[in-house]
Each structure stands twice: as structure tokens, then as C-alpha cells.
Amino acid sequence: PEKRLASRCRQTNKLNNFLSTAMASLFLYYYSVLQVDHACAWSHHPLALAYRNNAVFGNLNRLKGNDHHGFHRDPLIAFQSSESDSSSDSDTLAPPIPHLVDDNAPSWEDLRKQLLATSTGKRLQLESIDREKGHGPPHAHAKFRLFDAKAESEIRVTFYRDQAAWCPYCQKVWLLLEEKRIPYRVKTVPLNAYGDKPAWYTRLVDGGKLPTLELDGTLYRESLEIMKVLDDEFPDCGPKMFPSNESNRTNLLFELEQELQRDWFSLTFYPVEGGRLRSARTNLLQTLQKVDDELGKIKSGPWFLGGDAPSAVDLQYVTTVERIIASVLYYKGLVIRGKFVNVDEWLAAFERRSSYAASKSDYYTLIMAMPSQNGPGYMTAAGDVDDDKNANHDASSIIYGFDDAWKLPLQLTDDPSSSFEPIPSSQFRLGEPSEFRHEAAFRVISNHDGIVEFACRGAGEAGRPSYHAELADPYAESNEDFIAPVDVCLRHVTNALLNGVDDGAGVATVVAAAVIDLEGKGGTGELREDWESYIDEGTGRTYFWNYETGDVSYTAPTRQLDTCLVYLRDRVGVPRDMNLPAAMQLRAHLNWCIDLMK
């Protein structure tokens, strides 16, 4: 009777959770569609905040004791995992833990020596040393940037941004600091949907809003205000971002960017269909044509205000356009690149700049991040709008890594006309495909103990409380029983990244050693107690639901070895963990290992 009563209480709590979320969502939709003129204004409404913090949506990631959802450490933030209950039913009934009898993988020290013998390893090591001194190319992991300053004590600016490097408002400020070469230090804080903000930050900034900039002890909280203050305060640094002789055109273009945002939201984040869907699609394309026409008016360069470098107008647009391209492709099957000549040239100009390439996310990272920031996107039914009735389903499958999109061999290029997702040209070095593999290996080797522990969350327990973002679970618990076998797996993956698995000297040895250790060791696929699997008809993704707790997961809750690698693969973020080509190589090589274990 006590167990039945506990089960009934859990079911009641789950129902209450569902009903409260449904009511908040409906009211939020009514509020956003009928009452709000500005496309983003609803995100600050109290109902929106309640919606974002509701636990009905899945919880999925971050590394204990670190600041992130993946690889990069930050000593400023430490999340503590609670002790697990070893007497729970799920522990008692769990399938036996797989054991890797042999370990034929190179040691981490041997792998490090191999890496540093490569040109990429040497370059990345030097860049890492320079970065610790405030120099080197732009990077998501930089803690301070000196530029022409002689010492860190000369820095007047502290930039508070999101830990995951996904926030578009933080990205604008980040780009401006890099383009103007203003010395600054960085402190990272989680967005609300990804974890708890530390007390020191909520005491400093009322409401914990991001981004925030501290200049000579004064705080500024709105991205556009921050950009104007920096441009005025540092007139001798870099290009002028708000030229006084272009104020009328600047204001007109800012208004057009707001129109672009509204049309994007109407198409992507509102549940429209039929004639309203076609109208929303037409409106977005027409507004993009206006943007293209404005770029075409300038003959002195690719930028909105001309010149040799982007202005604040360009920075305002690029973070929006970057997200439009990914989201309308995923949800609507609508391809933007290649449709607008001037927009294409403008994007190509940005992708040649190291500042933009360092801050740019990939389609997958954006799709996983945007629902927690903008609300859920809505998939178009096959054939409802596009000439190709399967366009959106094909695109969503590729973005999620289905249909062998994350399988070797990869075809990576910087040519938008021949690539589903082109590599930024500033990151692409033709004729050196091994460079991308070696960068991925560098990132794994640099933090291998933390990454192994993080991957073991795939066989562990979800954390409490949960967060709205699918890729956020700062309190998740790793299953320490899997640390040794996961360590062997990742050493084989890193060895494959360094030496390849399809051609070149030593490949046969790399593959043979992995086969001996890993073949057939993934697991049976048996789900833990209280979990069931379902297929999302819109995306084709398999998701898992715990009918006792209401938890949702996109990683199979199996407590098996292959699940640990799947968990890690699905949480490689760009640019947080590494750049796009390196991330693609790591995901594909993890899949190589997963397939081998099956």
C-alpha cells in the first residue's frame, strides 16, 4: 500500500506539472501573439519566466564542478551533485555493467606526444599558451584579451556573458570588443534555462541578466547600450561602430532588423499552418529581400554602412541572420543561403573574419539552444509549403546527425553552393583534413579526465532540479562504474582522430586494437525500469519518457557503455567546446566507436 500511495503521489505531481505548464503555455501564446508588438518582449513576461523554469521539458547536461555543458573548465562556477540513493529500485534492477577485458589503447601521455608531434598540435599548444597571457586569436575560452595593452592591470572592461557562448546578445558585444580590439576580461555565467546563476552575480546584477558590461565600476545591461558606450568610450580603438554621419541610415536599418525578427518569429515559433503559414513564409522572404536590397545600395564593400570593417549594424544583423538560417531550414525546410546575392556576400565576408568564426555556432548547437531562448519551434507538415515535400524532414535529419550525416568519411568544405553547412573560410584550410581531427583530439586530451566523467552521466542519474534547456543538467550524477571502460573508449577515439580510420599509415593497427577491446561491448539496449521509448513524428527522433517521474530524455536510459558515448556525442557544442569542423570530426569518430561496440 505504501508503494502504491507513493506511485499515486508521483502521478498526481506529474499531472499537476503538466497542467500548470499547459496553462502557462496557452496563456503565453495568447499574450505573445495578440498583445506583444516586439518579437522578443514576451521573454521578459513573468509567465515566460515560469514557462522557462518548468520541469516538464527534458534535462540533459553539464560537467560537475565546471562552468559548461561539455569540455571547457571555469573555476568560477562549481555545481555539486547530490548523493545517489543506492537502494532505489532502478539500481537493483539495472542490467549488469559491461566489462572491457582488454585495454590495447595508447595511454593519454602517448596520445599527447603524438598530438604535439603534429603541426596542428604544436600550433594549438602555442595558441593556448598565448591565450593564457591575453594574446592569440579570438577564442571562446579566453579569460582576458590585452590587444595593445601592456598588462592586465590596464583593462577597464569586464564582460559578463553566457557560459555556453550561445546567447545572441552576448555575441554582439563579444564581436564588437574583438573588432575594436578593446582590452577586456571575461566572466561567464549560465543563462536561466541552463543552470543556477551564482550568488556573486545576482548580487552584482539585479535579475542576473546577460550580457552585462562593467566599465570603470559602472554596469551596463542592454546589448545595444553596451555597444554604444564602448564605441564612445574607446574612439581610438578599431573602426567607428556608430558613424555620426550615418545615424539616419543606422536607425532605419535597426528598424528593419526588428521587422526581420518579427517575421522570423511569426514563421518559426508560432503554430501557424495552411494559408497563414504560407503568408508568414512570404513575409520573411520579402523582408530578407529588403535586407538584401539595403546591402546592394553600398558599393564600397559588403557591409551595411560600407568601409573595410563591419559596423554595429552588421553585428546587430549577423546574430539574427545566423539563427534564422538554421531554424527555418530545420523547422520549415527553407534554404536561405544562395537566395540573396548581397546577403551571401555579406555572410562570406563575416566568415572570413576570425572574430566571427570564433563566436559562430553550428546548426545543431543553435537548434538545441533556441527553444530555451525563443520558445519551441514548430515543424512544417511535409508538403505544406515547400516544393520538395520532404525538405524540412531531410534538413532536420541531417542537422540531428541522422542519415549518416555524422558518419565517416565526412565531406567538409567552405563552399556554400556545395555544402549543407559550409565551414567558415577563416577556419577552413584546403588540403589539410587531418587538421580538424587533430583539433578535436587536442580538446579531448586537454581535459580527458573531465570528459570521461562527463560521458559517464549517460549511465548515471539526471539531476534535480531540472532545467528547461534540453542540453542542461548541472546536477546530473556520473556512474563511476563506467569510468574505466569509457576511458578506454575515448583513448581509442582519440587515437583514431590522430591517425585516421580509413587510410594512411598505422590505420590497421588503430582499428585492430579498437576491435579487440570494444567490439560487441556496447550493451543490449535494454531500458531501465519505468522508461519507455517513443518516436517524434515531426523529427523522426527517438525520445524516452519516464512514466513515474515525467522526465524526458533523448539519450537512451540504459546504463550501458554505448549510451555514455551517445550522451557525449550529442553534447559537443560549437563554439563552446571547439569549432565546427573539429566538432563534426569528433561526433563522427564517436559514432565510429559506437558502431564498433554494437
N-to-C SSE series? HHHHHEEHEHEEHHHHHHHHHHHHEEEHH
Proportion of residues in helical segments = 40-55%
Q: Which geometry do the CA atoms define?
A: globular
SSE-based structural type: mainly alpha
Tell me the number of helical segments per DSSP (H or I, 4 or more residues long): 21
Distance between the termini: 42 Å
Rg from C-alpha positions?
24 Å
Number of DSSP strands? 8
Largest sheet: 5 strands, mixed
Uncertain regions spanning at least 5 consecutive residues = 1-10, 27-95
Taken as a percent bin, the fraction of beta residues is: 5-15%
Strand arrangement within the widest β-sheet reads 1-3-2-4-5
Question: How much is the average pLDDT?
Answer: 83
Give the gist of this structure.
With 598 residues, the protein is mainly alpha-helical. 47% of the residues lie in helices and 6% in strands.
Can you describe this structure?
With 598 residues, the chain is mainly alpha-helical. It is 47% helix and 6% strand. The chain has a five-stranded mixed β-sheet. The protein has a three-stranded antiparallel β-sheet with strand order 6-7-8, with no helix packed on it. A hairpin with a 2-residue loop joins strand 4 and strand 5. Helix 4 crosses helix 16. It starts with a helix and ends with a helix. 44% of the residues are buried. Mean pLDDT is 83; it is low at 1-10 and 27-95.
